[in-house]
Amino acid sequence: TPGPLLARISVLPSFYHACKGDRHIWIWRNFQVYGDTFRAAPNLVLFNTPRAHADIYAARANTTRSGFYRAWKRGKDDVNTINSIDPLIHARKRKTLNLAFTEQSLKAAGPLMAVHVDRWIELLTSDANESEIWSTPRDMATWIDALVFDILGDLCFGESFDTKEPGENKLKKLPHLIMKQVSIGYMLSKSGLFNLVLWLQPRGLYALQERIRHADVKEYNAFVQGRVHGRIAAHKAGEKATRHDMFHFLLTATETDTNLPAYTDSNHLLAEARLLVLAGTDTSAATLCGLFFYLAHNPRVLAKLNAEIRSTFASVQEIMLGPSLSKCQYLRACIDEALRLAPPAPSELPREVLPGGAVIQGQFYPPGTVVGCSAWSMGRDEAIYGDAYTFRPERWIPSSHLDTLNSEDQVRNLKKIFHPFSTGSSDCAGRNVAMLELLLVCARTVWKTDIRVAPGFKDGEGRPELGWGQRSRDQFIVKDAFLSLKEGPVLQFRQRLE
Ligand code: HEM
Questions:
Q1: Paired residues of 65 in beta bridges
Q2: What DSSP assignment string belongs to 138-179?
Q3: CB environment 392-416: b (16+ within 10 A), e (fewer)
Q4: For 238, how many CA atoms within 13 A lie in the half-sphere containing its CB?
Q5: Could you say which residues bind heme here (predicted)?
Q6: Distance in Å, CA 422 to ligand 1 centroid
């Protein structure tokens, strides 16, 4: 397999770019140079085609999550769905976790999210009470982190973290601290020392990690632990649940074959709850930052979205899960376009080939080989998208209008190969909740406010000096820490004249 010479014989280039935060761009550049397959490290081959994506991630693929997913394990009891890399154990855990993501829980989630979104919009425009006045510049990276973190806290534990509220709150630092941990795990996993780290973890390293953990993270852990144990105790005492949040569904989950409680070890319940916060916050937050960046930078798109939302709903309260929201196809297309250009996990989701080997894009790979596709590069494939670097939601909507001509077939084919939530047995468990959140946050904000880039603020934009792949000011540039580290956009909001 071709690739940069140093990368073929050493992990150093991959590690270097993981440390620098531009590993996704490095991968993209290599696809430009070497074509649709390259060796990114001695035991890592990356691909950039829909066919390879299916061969690696589809349910039938003979692959499983690589050891990388143990990078954030914090102790031997910290066993959850995403770090269970044995396919059978994963399947069992996933089946139980799915009980937290039913139609019923989705329905319960909507009104709960809406309260947070409305309060958030009120805060966003709190210093722009008169209709003609723009708010002070708002850094969306922090504002959205707070909104999404509060929503998840509420969905998971039945209690808002209240980080979006003004004033002191130790939990405010948490989204930032969690991402710091994610990026350290990412760098470690790409270093040549990762196997040693995995070996050392149960041999004293876990204990050391706990000792050097940031005091605020310890406080967050204690907070989550307190909530989880409190809920378990109330459940055991026979208290009736007042709210059907995700934790309620996990707590009452039973194994389908035996009808016995699914989580008998409270540590496992805690580990799963932590996974939900991790998987459900930075992903949605990064996507929303990308979405607001592209909307604010493309007034044509924003105006068209405004028209759709404001003509579909007579009041903001009407914006809720249901047929009217599903009918807003331009809204949905804007979200897909943001997921394409600003995927929250921009580099590969690493998969290891299982015994027996796997044929990927017509080529045999032996067991143990780590393989993957990068969402950042896949979404920018000019052979598939044509004007791949343009934020053009119209590409997701069939149209016979001459300006936006797009056949049903073209759209169907694009959607078939677009997997922002991954695919197969280890795809996103929370995709319906995530989509509902993106729809509600975007539609309600657009209904209630006018939005613009704060004059003079360029946060998040590409810059010529960043070099190949990051030069364009139209692109939302993030750092790659496995999940995206975002900066900006900095926007202003104005209460809409109703
Ligand atoms: C825009 C938002 C989101 C996107 C794009 C997204 C995408 C993904 C992707 C690509 C994966 C596979 C990761 C991998 O294999 O490395 C994943 C896994 C997962 N996601 Fe999401 N996600 C989002 C939001 C959420 C939310 C809101 C929740 C929960 C409330 C959630 C829960 C999960 C869980 C539990 C997994 C692990 C599933 C498993 O191991 O089987 N996600 N997500």
A1: 351
A2: EEHHHHHHHHHHHHHHHHHHSS---TTSSS--GGGGHHHHHH
A3: bbbbbeeeeeeeeebeeeebeebee
A4: 0
A5: 428
A6: 8
Q: Which helix (H) or strand (E) holds 64?
A: strand 63-65
* CA angle in degrees (0–180, nearest 5) for 145-151-152: 90
Among 428, 439, 480, which is best to mutate for testing ligand 1, by the most ligand atoms less than 8 A from CB? 428
Ligand 1, atom 25, lies closest to the CA of 280
Which domains does the chain show, CATH number per domain? 5-495 (1.10.630.10)
The predicted complex's ipTM stands at 0.99
Specify the pTM.
0.95
Give the DSSP letter of residue 322.
S
Q: Token pair of 78, please?
A: 């910290």
Write out the chain's pLDDT in tens, 498 residues: 899 999 999 999 999 999 999 999 999 999 999 999 999 999 999 999 999 999 999 999 999 999 898 888 888 888 889 889 899 999 989 998 998 898 888 998 999 999 999 999 999 999 877 767 999 999 999 999 999 999 998 888 888 889 999 998 888 888 888 888 888 889 989 998 888 888 888 888 888 887 877 777 777 788 788 888 888 888 888 777 677 788 888 888 887 778 888 887 888 888 888 888 889 999 999 999 999 999 999 999 999 999 999 999 999 999 999 999 999 999 999 999 999 999 999 999 999 999 999 999 999 999 999 999 999 999 999 999 999 999 999 999 999 999 899 999 999 999 999 999 999 999 999 999 999 999 999 999 999 999 999 999 999 999 999 999 999 999 999 999 999 999 999 999 999 876
Q: Which residues are annotated as a binding site?
A: 428
Q: How far is CA 184 from CA 66, 160, 187, 209, 275, in A?
A: 17, 27, 5, 12, 17
Q: What is the DSSP track for 351-363? A: EEEPTT-EEETTE
